[in-house]
Amino acid sequence: DGDADLDLFVGQTFGKIYFYRNDGTPQISAWTFVSESFESIDAGSYSAPTFGDLDSDGDFDLLVGNDEGKLRFYRNDGITGSFSFVFITGYYDSIDVGERSAPVLCDFDSDGDPDLFVGESKGGLHYHKNLTLNSIRGCVTDETSPLEDAVVYLS
């Protein structure tokens, strides 16, 4: 919400995404339940949300993993401090990790672009470097993970 502290989004077994706003400080959290789900979002069972600026417009877009092992992209068309997510087809379709994808966006290689790690139900960890909309369509590669020996289990 643009107030310098971290908020919490929790994916649920039946696909809902819960939003808890941090009304505390960056040092001391105070959670307020805001929304049971985003009505326009149906990412499928075992939703696993992550946020990052995937379209390079300065706001947080939403990428959600699901039970099918796929990712669904929701572009944020809202203004600072508010969300207005629109499902966009065609991006991230080539990423399929099998079952229960759990994505995390971060700038792992410190080059200014979001990188993507996707965990899956059998313990695998998939890595995709420099993941912006300008670089994604038709050219997603599953790079060798820098954490190749890591085993991840989802619950």
TrEMBL record:
Keyword Signal listed: yes
Any Pfam family the entry gives: FG-GAP_3
Q: Has the keyword Signal been applied to this entry?
A: yes
Q: Keywords assigned by UniProt?
A: Signal
Q: What is this protein called?
A: VCBS repeat-containing protein
Which source organism? marine sediment metagenome
Q: What is the lineage of its organism?
A: unclassified sequences, metagenomes, ecological metagenomes
